[in-house]
Amino acid sequence: MDQTDSLQAIMFADVSGSSALYKRVGNEEAKAIIDQAIQFMTALTIVHEGTVVKTLGDEVMTRFDNSTQACETAVAIQQRCLKESDLLGLSVRIGIAYGPILFDNNDVFGDTVNDAAYVARIARARQILLSQSAVDHLDKDLLRDCQMFDRVNIKGDTRKSLIYRLRWESQRQDKVTQLMPLQDITQFIEKFQLLLRVGDREIQLLPDQTPFNIGRDPEKTHLHINHELASREHCHIEFRRGKYVLVDHSTNGTYVTSPNQPHIYLRREELPLQGTGEIGLGQPTAKAGDWLIHFQV
């Protein structure tokens, strides 16, 4: 796998009180409410030029180029929670750290990730906690609203580290999220989202998560298709000029079908993905069986 180092701000935002919510309103309603929370946290991350790394149950892991972007997103999330009556009293706790991370495909690893996860775990409901490194790289306006919260041994470190709390209640809501209703933010994200589904697995892609590699080699692809007719690195999807483009570089080619459209066969060619349809690697979609890829743009 390709691995590269970079300086990034990592943020974990965790829905607090989800277990009690399941007991109070039942599984289906609770899941719908938590999904709504995850949706607006994802939307606000993208609006603030961040990247959603992954969602883990009732938690969102995101990354940003700097601490200020991460904190502005965290403030927007907390302010949005206060306004969303549909959340039935749910709140969010957030932890942020800044430093070197290791990129591995679309995931990130390293001490900074571990620090952010730890800080999020010790945060209370409606709190935004920051590591020392995150505070060291904040803009002055946000720095004024940080206060020392605790001195702790972050997991794996024998030294005491300072943890700070961002007093977000004193922050004015930023212009973008103030003017853009949640529905419009969500529509903004959905407009640039590609959904892929293989069997029970569903993948939501945004432009900055491409190129997205598909093929038989589990170590070189994001979507593993374990079929003999699929090449090791069969094809990839990239975002170009406002469209998701499927690029084939396989031995057996790629088959694409869409409603009311003729079947298309690609071999060392590319095709913009539009609407809904199906993709077969190395075989027609009608024969792909469990390895049939459904897409929706």
Structure description:
The protein is of the alpha+beta class and 297 residues long. The chain has two domains: 3-188, Nucleotide cyclase, GGDEF domain (Alpha-Beta Plaits), CATH 3.30.70.1230; 193-296, Tumour Suppressor Smad4 (Sandwich), CATH 2.60.200.20. The chain is 28% helix and 37% strand. The chain is built from eight helices and 19 strands. It has helices spanning 18-25, 27-47, 67-83, 111-122, 132-136, 140-143, 175-179, 182-191, and strands spanning 3-16, 51-56, 59-64, 91-104, 107-109, 128-131, 146-153, 160-166, 194-198, 201-205, 212-215, 223-224, 235-240, 243-248, 254-257, 264-266, 270-272, 276-281, 293-296. The strands form three sheets. Strands 1, 2, 3, 4, 5, 6, 7 and 8 form an eight-stranded mixed β-sheet that branches. Strand 2 (51-56) and strand 3 form a beta hairpin. Helix 2 (27-47) packs across helix 3 (67-83). It is elongated, with a radius of gyration of 21 Å.
